[in-house]
Predict the structure.
Amino acid sequence: MQASAVPYAVPKPGPSTRAQIVGVASDLIKTRSYLGFSFQDVADAVGIRKASLYHHFATKEALGIEVVRHSLEGFKTWSARLGGKAPKDARDSYFRMYRNDLHAGAGVCPTGAMAPGWDCIGDEVRQAVRELRQEQVLWLTGVLGAWPRPKGKAAPAAGALAGFVFAVCQGALLSARMTGRVADFDEAVAQLKASLPG
């Protein structure tokens, strides 16, 4: 299996009701935002009574945290599979992961979908989102820090550049979601790549 096939892996609907709930919630967050769905929406999609959800998740916040944690574990698994790749290949794999696995034009990153309601979500959800962002930025820092530097040119700090790459990818997903055009994501990433060293 290629490394790009499993980022943001959320359990697919299967024998576990809990896994189905998390998968449905992840899909709803990516397409409606965290504030745009209810427990009833999840229950209807899974085919259970709303009251049954509370056997698995006491609150919507607990469910949101679980979605983000699965996303974090999925990213760690995905990035570990890229070990040993050249920096350019790893960077381009990151862009493909955003484009293909997060469905540019049709959805957004589940954690990025939390930002519009930032002041309305609980501290634990916000902390989980920050941890996922930090994991990506640290990984990107390693990738960009390993990039060969042109002689005689000062390069921006890899950490600052990593934060910039993360922010552009998140914004490109949001923009493509607004228009429904994957091409808008591609155009933003093309401009990003042109601005990066190498």
User: Anything to note?
Assistant: The two ends are 29 Å apart (CA to CA).
